[in-house]
Design a protein that fits this description.
The complex is a heterodimer. Chain A is built from four helices and no strands. By secondary structure, chain A is mostly helical. Chain B is of the alpha/beta class. The chains are: A mainly alpha, B alpha/beta.
Chain lengths: ~120, ~600
């Protein structure tokens, strides 16, 4: 489970842009970008076999699923600042760490926001 | 209670005792102080659907700086900030630019009290460019905003809403946006109109003085039209459908042509009882040139109207109170007058004056407020207004907005039309006892005016009425009686006093500019001298009551300049206008 360099740069830019939209009350623009981010992840999860290929993928899969669940909760309120922050301060570092070794403990099953 | 809270409340008590009492008597709030991930304060506001962060739960300062950059990126003159919270965003903006004005609304009492308990709020009162209210009442916020655009005369306003407030105060914000949009439509149109035409206006002000000896204040007609129906005839495309019925109603209602409406009536050989004119540009002359049927139609005018127009009609003339010089003329001559009313179009002004005179009902015709059938005017206006096919370019032009007319059909309109409608609607509210009927077949709906089919109304109400008013005779009678009361000598003295005032203005403005441009004089001495000359100028009635009003429309452009530079620009502007007026006195009033 990893991104090509240009894919990563694009996603990073998109996340920062989406965060900026949410924290400046441009929510329509933010939600549009968020849909694109989710679509990128759906594709990634499909390509990587939904986290079943190896332990590292399973770890990231569960981490992202946990994050998506929190984003879904934020959207329900809706708390756009939290939504933007989750993208910038949680998702972005996680994406940056893709490709590094997973922690030794079993991450367990992902929950909530499952990739379709 | 904490020291911070006590200090803040002490400050609030000095500055705003009502707000102090409100906060002091507030019960428990649903806002709690929490910590962001970086250890800074944040607020969490609870509501039935959950709890919402007021600032970033990770890094409030980073969020605030981003917002500040975004908000100030377009270099606004004014920032209207909805939501204060703990003030991170506002402080970020203030740090980036403290020289612009900030209008801050904190609608949430609970949030404000929690802020008072935890942060020093001196920053809110540290700068004379900051205006703050804590209120969630629509009327208060709207008044606050209206005051802001009227005082500052600026259209560069940035609206900033904190994301959580957009969720918590959605309904209030929707209502505010709607109102602000209307205010901005009106303001933007007024602002650009004023800037464009000042030179022509001042020429008209003076050149029109020559008609005063043969003019009567509109208020003198106040007993003539009580409960007489009036039709305000504008020149919108729908008017074409009502021409045969307008011909028939004759003396069953006052037919008042507004602006281009007179051309359509003339073309169809219908004599109006009144023609209204206020447009200051030369184009207005085209409407009144070569009139035959309407040559002797009484004119309702303002001193602002293009100065050749009054001479093109041979009938009686009535002065309305539309601007500063109209009010000045009425006052100085001891004439009674209706409260001043100015609007974007002559239709609005005619509607106001007819309502004041007691006409009831007031019927709108040709008041389309949109391009019905892709047309700008009713048939017959081409000779004076030209012809354009709007269908060709409305579609892709952002200046044209698509909406629905009163029949539910899609039509194009624009901001000036919407501004006119807003003003019509607010004007109607001034006359709760008057019935307004919208007889414009394909026009936009007008709130407060009942939709009617004018042709049916004419057949079944106006033409069946036993009342057949002697309208023209009554108008002429009032006019003749007024002329008997007017003293030509007194009017000459009044006009001469204005000419003297103008000479004084020219002299003082020249002195100011010469003083500022004097390279040998020290700055402080220049300032003292200019201040003294400004005081002299403020004692000249023509400047104080008339020119100063025009000045208020342009002062904001130079407001950030240093005093002497500001004065140089402002008094050069005044000198320019006074020289135009001098010329009008010589050639138009004194016949030189």
């Amino acid at each position: 489970m990893e991104f090509a360099e240009e894919e990563f740069a694009y996603l990073e830019g998109l996340i920062i842009q989406t965060w900026g939209s949410f924290i400046t009350s441009r929510t329509t623009e933010g939600m549009k970008n968020l849909q694109e981010i989710i679509a990128i992840f759906e594709e990634l999860f499909q390509y990587s076999g939904g986290g079943k290929n190896n332990t590292q993928n399973a770890y990231f899969y569960s981490m992202f699923n946990g994050l998506f669940k929190r984003m879904e909760d934020a959207m329900r309120i809706p708390d756009y600042i939290l939504l933007g922050d989750l993208l910038k301060y949680e998702m972005l570092p996680l994406i940056k760490s893709l490709g590094t070794d997973p922690p030794s403990k079993d991450p367990g099953e992902g929950n909530g926001f499952a990739a379709k | 209670m904490s020291r911070i809270y006590n200090n803040n409340m002490g400050l609030l008590r000095k500055l705003n005792i009502d707000l102090y009492s409100k906060i002091k008597n507030m019960g428990t709030t649903d806002t709690s102080l929490v910590f962001a991930r970086n250890g800074r304060y944040n607020l969490l506001k609870s509501f039935p659907g959950g709890a919402i962060n007021i600032h970033s739960p990770y890094n409030p300062e980073e969020q605030a700086l981003y917002m500040a950059d975004w908000a100030l990126g377009e270099k606004p003159d004014i920032v209207f900030l909805f939501g204060l919270g703990l003030g991170y965003e506002f402080k970020g903006m203030l740090k980036t630019n403290s020289n612009i004005r900030y209008f801050i609304v904190e609608p949430d009492g609970g949030i404000f009290r929690t802020a008072l308990q935890n942060i020093d709020i001196k920053f809110l009162f540290s700068n004379h460019n900051i205006y703050f209210i804590q209120d969630d009442r629509y009327d208060y916020i709207v008044n606050f905003f209206a005051g802001l655009i009227n005082q500052d005369k600026s259209v560069r306003i940035k609206f900033v809403v904190l994301p959580s407030y957009q969720v918590l105060y959605k309904e209030l914000l929707d209502a505010l946006y709607e109102h602000i949009k209307k205010l901005m439509n009106t303001f933007a149109v007024n602002f650009y109109t004023n800037m464009k035409y000042h030179r022509q206006w001042v020429q008209n002000y003076i050149a029109n003085l020559k008609y005063l000896r043969n003019s009567c204040p509109v208020i003198k007609l106040s007993n003539t039209f009580k409960n007489v129906p009036a039709v305000v005839v504008a020149a919108g495309p729908s008017l074409t459908h009502n021409i045969p019925h307008l011909k028939k109603i004759a003396n069953r209602a006052v037919i008042a042509a507004a602006g281009t409406g007179i051309s359509i009536l003339e073309k169809n050989r219908i004599k109006a009882h009144i023609a209204g004119a206020v447009d200051g540009t030369q184009l207005e002359e085209n409407l009144f040139k070569n009139l035959e049927v309407n040559k002797s139609t009484p004119l309702f005018y303002s001193s602002n109207v293009y100065y050749k127009v009054p001479s093109l009609l041979s009938g009686s003339r009535f002065l309305m109170n539309v601007n500063g010089i109209d009010t000045f003329i009425h006052r100085k001559n001891g004439w009674e007058f209706y409260e001043r009313y100015s609007a974007l179009s002559i239709s609005n002004i005619m509607m106001y004056n007819l309502s004041r005179l007691g006409c009831n009902p007031v019927i709108f015709l040709g008041q389309d407020l949109c391009f019905s059938g892709g047309k700008t005017y009713a048939e017959g206006a081409e000779e004076v207004k030209g012809s354009i096919d709007l269908k060709l370019y409305c579609v892709n032009d952002p200046n044209y907005l698509q909406t629905e007319n009163k029949n539910g059909e899609p039509v194009y309109t624009n901001r000036p039309f919407l501004g006119m409608r807003d003003l019509l609607e607010s004007c109607m509210k001034l006359f709760p006892g008057t019935v307004y009927l919208n007889g414009t077949r394909d026009g936009l709906p007008i709130k407060g005016a009942e939709d009617i089919d004018f042709n049916n109304y004419a057949d079944n109400v106006l033409l069946k009425s036993r009342d057949n008013y002697q309208i023209s005779e009554a108008i002429d009678g009032v006019f003749e009686n007024h002329l008997k009361e007017v003293s030509n000598e007194e009017m000459d003295v009044f006009i001469k006093s204005l000419e003297n005032d103008n000479d004084n203005i020219i002299e003082i403005c020249r002195d100011i500019i010469l003083c500022i441009e004097n390279t040998e004089m020290e700055e402080e001495i220049k300032k003292t001298k200019v201040q003294k000359l400004e005081r002299q100028l403020s004692e000249v009635p023509l400047f104080e009551k008339i020119i100063k009003e025009l000045l208020s429309q342009i002062e904001y452009i130079y407001k950030n300049r240093k005093y002497l530079d500001y004065c140089r620009q402002i008094y050069a502007y005044v000198l320019d206008k006074s020289l135009i007026m001098e010329n009008a006195f010589i050639h138009e009033v004194n016949g030189g």
